[in-house]
Amino acid sequence: MPARSLADRMSMEFEDLVPYLKRMIESGTISVVYGDKHPNPYVRALQDESSNDQIAKLIPEKLEHACIYPQPKHLESVVNKQQFFHLPYTLKLALGTPLYTHDFFDPSVLVYYERQPHCSIINDIRGVISLPYTKVRYSKALYVTDKGQPLTELIALNLEQLSSLRAIDQQYWYSMSLPVRCRLHPDIVHPLLHGAFRERISIFEALHEEMMAINGLCPLLDKPAMFEKGPLDIQNETLGGYLIRPTLRSFESFFMALQIQLFQHVNEEFLTSISTAPVKRRRGKRSTHIRRPSLTPLERIESWLLHSFGVPHRHLIRRFTLLVKKTRLETHRRLQRENTEALDSELLILQRRLMWNAYQSIKWIRTSLEAGLNNVHEDLHPLAREQKIWVQ
Predict the structure, then answer these.
(1) Distance between CA atoms of 290 and 301, rounded to whole angstroms?
(2) d(Cα 15, Cα 10) in Å, to the nearest integer?
(3) Please, which of 84, 134, 182, 377 could form a disulfide with 213 given CB 3.0 to 4.6 Å?
(4) How many helices (H) and strands (E) does the chain have?
């Protein structure tokens, strides 16, 4: 209840309310939310401040915009829990648990939804599960030791999301929750709790931005777009984030999608426009084409940039290509011999290596084009421009 409404209902001034509110705060019956810790006092978003802090702010000027909430101690005695028998998270909400309280889960909790034909999952720093009746947003979290050493990656859902689920889904998530306290990803905490802008963008979003920028620069060269499918399809669960379950099967799907996006979706018209005339060698009266080792589309683009603009050779594309070839051979070998559904956390490390090398390669193409054209693509995301990237 807004403090203003209580004062009107009781026909009292704020000054007269203060001693009553103070006694109720001290008894643990109510808490007062002033809107200075979280900007919206009409939502019990965060844990209540200490009784002393609440009482210290009991002045008319602050009560003008404050709201009063019953404490869990009181709600336990008046809420009919049988009404929420099949809704464990709605019950938590009814008992006064703050809206942005998080429960933590192993990412394998998402496998159930992966297998549902009517669901789709986008998985990165912040993911989305699209259900027929709602969308549920989850966040990355990290379980750490007392000394701050990261142990494992989990996902987190706040009570606002969990209480929006139907009974059967609430029960599923409740049964799968882990009794641990974790560290939320900084770019979840800052906008949600502090109203601050995020610090960086994800590696998937950064790659998407770089590809869009390259396509935006191509008209200045009088050439068609380099990537015929346009930017990276980060709405696709295969390329939308890190593996939910790091198995050989899920890694193979990601790896295949990445190769298709960066090799097969390079626009053939663009490649034709940068091709040089075939080199011929005279042998008596006969001419023969000189055979060259086959190059990937990105290597052909790299060669063209070096020849056309004389940009410094950093071997980034060559390094990425070698990593892809090595990964292709190793993955094929393992698929023949190993259980494709067995969990392997090392695949997450390999996925990060591939994404980082892919990003560095595509970024090098963009920076080389900008340097050669002496023109900056203004629409590139500022965080991508500053290379503020989350790799994990």
Answers:
(1) 20
(2) 13
(3) 377
(4) 17, 12
Tokens of 253: 């799907």
Sequence-distant (≥ 6) Cβ neighbours of residue 277 within 8 angstroms = none
Q: How far apart are CA 71 and CA 85, in angstroms?
A: 21
Residue 337 CA to residue 345 CA, distance in Å, equals: 18
Give DSSP secondary structure letters for 338-388: S-TTSB-THHHHHHHHHHHHHHHHHHHHHHHHHHHHT---TTS-HHHHTT-
Q: Are 271 and 300 in contact (CB under 8 A)?
A: yes
Contacts 24+ apart (CB under 8 A), 254-262: 254/351, 255/327, 255/328, 255/331, 255/354, 258/354, 258/355, 258/358, 259/324, 259/328, 261/229, 261/232, 261/233, 262/298, 262/358, 262/362
**What average pLDDT does the structure give for the chain?**
86
Neighbours of 380 (CB within 10 A): 19
- 387 contacts: CB under 8 Å, gap ≥ 6: 363
Q: How many residues does the chain have?
A: 392
- Contact between 14 and 3 under an 8 Å Cβ cutoff? The reply is yes
Question: Rounded to whole angstroms, how far apart are CA atoms 206 and 384?
Answer: 6
User: How far apart, in whole angstroms, are the C-alpha atoms of residue 238 and residue 61?
Assistant: 53
The β-bridge relationship of strands 126-130 and 120-122 is antiparallel
* Amino acid type, 174: Y
Residue 281 identity (one-letter amino acid): R
Sign of CA dihedral 89, 94, 99, 102: negative
Nearest alpha-carbon partner for 353 in 255, 265, 209 = 255
pLDDT per residue as tens digits for the range 81-138: 999 999 999 999 999 999 999 999 988 888 888 777 777 676 677 778 888 899 888 8
What is the DSSP pairing of strand 389-390 with strand 201-202? Answer: parallel
> Which residues does residue 298 pair with via DSSP β-bridges, in sequence order?
none
